[in-house]
Amino acid sequence: MTDEKKKRQVEVKHRDDQYAERYRTSIWLEESEHENPFVETAAFCHGYSFEELVKKVSYPQMLFLLLKGELPSKTQEQLLNKALVAFCHPGVRHDAVRAAALAGVGKTLPQNILPIAMLVFGGSRTGSADVAKMMRYFAKTKRQSASEALAINPTPIVLGDYYGEADVMAAKIAQWLSQGDDDTPHIDWGMKLVAEAQSENEKIGWTKASVAAAVFCDLGLMPKFGVALMQLLAAPGLLAQGVEHANKPVTVLPFVGDDDYEIQTEFAPS
Amino acid sequence: MSDIDFLLAQRGKLLNRRGGWLASKGVFSYGQDLLRDMIPNKTYFHVLGLNALGYVPEDRFCRWLEAIFICLSWPDPRIWCNGIGALAGSAHTTVLSATAAGMLASDSEMYGPFTAKKGAAFIQQALKEVELHDSIGDFVESQIKMSGGKVQLMGFARPIATGDERLEAMLKYSEDLGFLVGAHVQLGLDIEQYLIEHYGESMNIGGYACAFFSDQGLTPEQIYRIFPSAVNSGVTACYIEQVEQPDNAYLPQTCEDIEYTGPTKRALPDAVTGST
After folding, report:
1. Rounded to whole angstroms, how far apart are CA atoms B198 and B144?
2. Which of B48, B72, B43, B65 has the alpha carbon at shortest distance from B174?
3. Residues of A in contact with B248 (CB under 8 A)
4. Is B260 inside a domain boundary?
5. Which residues contact residue B128 at a Cβ distance below 8 angstroms, ignoring those fewer than 6 apart?
6. Is residue B147 part of a domain?
7. b/e map A8-25, b = 16+ CB within 10 Å
8. Contacts of B202 in chain A (CB under 8 A)
9. Considering CB atoms only, which of B171, B261, B272 is closest to A71?
């Protein structure tokens, strides 16, 4: 140790990195005609007047504009609108919904309830964590036939099980979102992949995250948006469930009594 | 028991736990009685180690752990996670929201606890691989080649500055505590020596911590599990300093201060206007 210490001669100094002098964005422009230059009096999103957007576009159009920089086609708007509905609630038994309810009943400050639930929804099991990887899989693999894709990788990230079975609801959502091969090519290719995989193993299939990933690909979104976008889409359901019991006593939720709480023998108190 | 039977047996019950509170008996973690045994005899860092690792680490390990937490928690808002604490202070969130937000920010691919998992995996794998190469330099160059010619060895070099003043302090403290230089730390120092001579880069505090923990037998996942709250105190400090400042005083920006690089102003298409 002493010898090594003597050898170490490390000088700490700033790198010559050139940092930007100003924050730069291509998304949002704020202008001020106020005498106070900190107060904005007009705003523009990708060149469109914020006022016009508020008055004339739908929420799916605005969301698409923010993420893509252009307004969606009618077909894209309809697909995004469907996705906003399809993924607005992860299911009442989902860990994220239960976390929201637990936070609400635990009288967690209201501003924390949604972030808590969305964090839990960011998990890799039944959550959004792998959506970007799934989008990259679809983008890279869709040129192959389903059988070719499975021959190369028999267990792709877009296939999974749900309580040991194929996820029936995820498959239904895929069906509901499908608008035909021209408009939803990734969803429709995914259906072929699922069918091919289920010919070997009927207990795997779509996951809700992989359906979302396919939709995001069909919308032309970049994978880097995928994880957080699925969290955003789930936010309304998480919010509603989190606040549902927020002002009620803690007894509104089940509580595991000591008789049903068992510490491993190895770690049990004597 | 089938998978479904297993799940059905868990409904409404919490079975086979490693700890918990049993009314009238006490609070237990991995067989340790927190109230009777830990409070009078151990520190918070013993409990942190116990809950993360499943056993009570030795005293000097816990003192070392406390020291590395000091290294990772600075009251400087220019560090990304701390900047979030300062912005939260500016926004007048609660201190807990601020601190939690800053801690989450440190779950990063670039710095903080998340990188420890990769750093530990790197140094542990390196110890196995280095013997396959003719020299440390040969090994390092093979890693740099894989990174397209960039020095991107996990645990070496750091953003903003070269060198890392925390290493010297921790090396000395480790020696004071009686820790010998283990194989992973020695490898880290050897890699560092090569990097200093050829690239002007050195081991960073995360890399050293990963090597030290590896010498103590921890896996990459265990190292990640012991670190999640490492930056919290610095974030809190930055929050408190800012929340007590005048409103909007944290790096205020006029509209002109933002450089807009998007499309010029344009009218909404007729199709959109007509569709609503």
Report:
1. 12
2. B65
3. 38
4. no
5. none
6. yes
7. bebeeeeeeeeeeeeeee
8. 10
9. B272
Closest CA to B20 of B33, B11, B9: B33
Chain B residues close to A263, C-beta within 8 Å: 17-20, 22, 28
Residue of B nearest to A52 (CA): B268
Kindly state whether residues B79 and B120 are assigned to the same domain.
no
| B222, B234: one domain | no
Distance, in angstroms, between B3 CA and closest chain A CA? 7
Nearest CA in chain B to A10: B163
Interface probe with A: pick from B272, B273, B275, most Cβ of A within 10 Å: B272
Q: Indicate whether B253 belongs to any domain.
A: no
Low-confidence ranges of chain A (pLDDT < 50): 1-2, 4-5
Residue of A nearest to B249 (CA): A38
Contact A23, B253 (CB under 8 A): yes
Instruction: Return the domain boundaries, chain A.
Output: 95-244
Asked whether residue B163 falls in the same domain as residue B149, the answer is: yes
CB nearest to A5's CB, from B4, B171, B265: B171
Mutation site for B-interface testing, chosen from A13, A27, A29 by largest number of B Cβ within 10 Å: A29
The helix, strand and coil proportions of chain B, stated in percent and rounded to the nearest 5, come to 60, 10, 35
Total number of domains constituting chain B: 3
Same-domain pairing of B132 and B181: yes
Looking at the structure, tell me whether residues B180 and B202 fall in a common domain: yes
Q: Same domain for B167 and B208?
A: yes
| Domain assignment present for B96 | yes
List per-residue pLDDT tens for chain B, 276 residues long. Answer: 678 999 999 999 999 999 999 888 899 999 999 999 999 999 999 999 999 999 999 999 999 999 999 999 999 999 999 999 999 999 999 999 999 999 999 999 998 999 999 999 999 999 999 888 888 999 999 999 998 888 889 999 888 888 888 999 999 999 999 999 999 999 999 999 999 999 988 999 999 999 999 999 999 999 999 999 999 999 999 999 999 999 999 999 999 999 999 999 999 998 887 544
**Contact criterion met (CB < 8 Å) for A269 and B25:** yes
Which of B56, B33, B36 lies closest to B46, judged by CA?
A: B56
Whole domain around residue B173: which residue ranges?
113-226
Return residues 41-70 of B near A (CB < 8 Å).
none
